[in-house]
Amino acid sequence: MLNQAMHDMRYALRQLRRSPGFTATAVLTLGLGIGVTTAMYSIVRGTLLAPLPYPHAEELVGVGWRHAGEPPSAEQTGETGDLLLANAKSFASIGLADDGPLGQNFSDGRGSATTIRSIHVTSGYLPTLGFAPLLGRTFTREEDTPGAAPTVVLSEKLWRTMLNADHGIVGRVIHINGDPYTVIGVMPSALATVDTPDAWQPMQLSAKTAGYEGDNFQMIARLRPEVSMAQASGELAGLTKAIYQQYPGYAKRGGAGAAPLSERVWPLRDVVVSDARPSLIALSLAVLAVLLMACLNLAGLITARASSRRAEIALRTALGAGRIAVMRLLLLESLLLALCGSVLGIGLAYMVVPMLLASSPIDLPQMNRVVMDLPVSAFAIFVGIATTLIFGLVPALGVFRQSTETQLGASRTAGAGVSQQRMGRVLIVAQVALATVLLSVGALLTNAFLRMRAIPPGVVPEHLYTLQVNLKGARYTSSARSQQFVQSVEEKLRGIPGVAKVATVNGLPLDSGLNDVGYPAGHKELEGTVEARFVTPGYFQAVGTTLLQGRDLSSSDTETSPRVVLINQRAASLWWPGRSAIGEYVFDLDTNTPSRVVGVVADTHVRSIADKVNPASYHAYAQVPDDVMKPINGWFATTFVMRTFESAGNLPIAEAAEASIAEVDAEVPTAKFAAMQSYIDKGVAAPRFFTWLAGGFAGFSLLLTVVGLFGLLSYQVGSRTRELGVRIALGAQRGQVLGLVLGSGLALTAIGLAAGAMGGFAVRGVVASLLSSTIYVNASEAASLLGNEGLAIAIAAFAMLVSAMAASLIPARRAASIEPMEALRNE
């Protein structure tokens, strides 16, 4: 038995070596298809499917204050969070945290400072995650009470990198934002995820907490062992009623006709992966389409090869070989192809996964858990064997449906049987349809990317640089102290060679800023979201935003002068349509004191180059009151913008700018130095990434279709040599033969294009949803960026027709060049 198996293996290897073109094409096709599939599987497995890295993670849930039908979330307001912390009984523990880690200034008290990411949490947050501290302990309820002495828990990473893994750190004092904090514990690195902070501080939640009334908090909980998810949902439904009784104003949230908000519970893993899930699912579908293309191509290759070997198979059967023995030979050949393709695919996946993770603009949860390990390799081999057997060996076994006599006779006549020819045509039509869909998706995403690049950002990014710092802690709670720092830094920055203009802003375009509520004086019915920004004189000249009406801010706009504001064009046209806004008044920062409009500036985008422009207000930095300056400094970085002369060239502006900060306050490190263009590039990173991926998938599918069509037509020409020779001998013009073969290829292409066009129209919504989830716009706005799907399908059809013509031309010319006598003599 073993000798027979080795003999069959050697024979299968010889057969594959005798057909190097077929073998190389099949292995490469399999390898590419398996490679991209395995790479995507490893990412999906590590992010969407892997359990969270916490003890008994199945007990962890996220609790969100959401509308019905919205994706899983743990968002809470301070008010709803407070009520749940006090009344929820379904949970063994429950915790609240900031909406995300914020930049803080860390110092060990030895004169040097660096930027870290810290998050405020309630005393129950860290115990809910289930990890015991590596050193010390976590917060007590007393330490989480407003007014308690400041304490901090550090991450193991910060402890090792910044504090030399000092085991005596517990009880020592470090400085965060210049304020002393007592270290009470160190959390282990096992807690680390992609968004893990460097430090945890007690939240000390109260009605005075910044952002208390907004959706600025995240809630997690651990279910009691005897409580199910359904039971917890039932209790939350009752607490929702209590929230509406205590806070009746929540009934207006979401706008007229919107579904009411309610407290909802989800598995924490669903909350963590919620933002990334649509993108990963869409990419997985595209990868599966590419794998299917590879499988169809492989099926066509093996079917054609099996048909060409009918004489060999028939002869073996006639000489006494059983069908099981022949099938065993075909099986061994298929397994060899599958193993070679799988090995190539694993190698490609090892190269592709790091590149995808490094270039992806999607915030992938648990990205550190994406690995190419043994289970992933086993998955690749399984896919290789399964696809080869299903799409390769099964169609090839069609040769056994005919009797030995029929096969021997057919081998001397027309070549492939009707069933094999039909199978080949069906496979080509399916490939053309899939390739058309992928090409149309690529065209839609390319159009969206080009449209986004053409949108004016509202600033002139050339020669514009930004320097961000965090003004936090007790020293920068007052407006006067913050102004003093800003004025001193601006003066030093102006002295740097090559710097032409300098200004300051809290809330840079395409970065982040304050979402406020505002309205024109006397028209509270127009109340809505306003993007509030705080700038120093000369800001608009520095960033290149056009002043459309009125005047800019000046040094005379101080804390003692009447409060003034500039608004953007969107606000002016919405609030005072058809007339000038100069001299009107706006309520936004302070509902008791309005600000007088002195200027109107051009619109700029906030979170994304494609987002809908909201009304925006620009207040004089010197007029920001203390009760506003403290939370603004707490939430947002203070950004210095510097426009350089064109002749500045490669002057070391970054180093000089950072030195200027250190000269003013050594405890305030530079958080980030970047060119303004980088913010614009970040805004189009997602559509650029998806465009490149879609283009790669579409190009690969187009190549496979060309190879498949070329192979099918070449095989048909070879099997019909006698027929074509007779046609020419009976008077058929060579142009007619050329057209016959070309027409056959184009007819199959046209059928596939019709099916693919329907698929192209069907996937538009999926593509719009994918785009909207990554560029901060709704689905309808994303759909408008995609453009007309009819045009995209037309582009795809044109590319497919040109490719089909090229694939069909060589076999057609070979058919037209057949010499009748030579063809008949060979037969």
Automatic annotation (TrEMBL):
InterPro entries, alphabetized: ABC3_permease_C, ADOP, MacB_PCD, Macrolide_Exporter_MacB
UniProt keyword Protein transport, yes or no: no
Major subcellular site: membrane
Membrane topology reported for the UniProt record: Multi-pass membrane protein
GO cellular component terms attached to this protein's record: plasma membrane
Domain MacB-like periplasmic core: 23-237, 432-604
Molecular function GO terms recorded: transmembrane transporter activity
Record's subcellular location: Cell membrane
Keywords: Cell membrane, Membrane, Transmembrane, Transmembrane helix
Residue ranges of domain ABC3 transporter permease C-terminal in the record: 286-402, 697-820
Record-annotated membrane-spanning stretches: 21-44, 280-301, 336-358, 370-394, 428-450, 689-715, 735-754, 791-812
Family: Belongs to the ABC-4 integral membrane protein family.
Name under which the protein is recorded: Putative permease
Organism expressing this protein natively: Granulicella aggregans
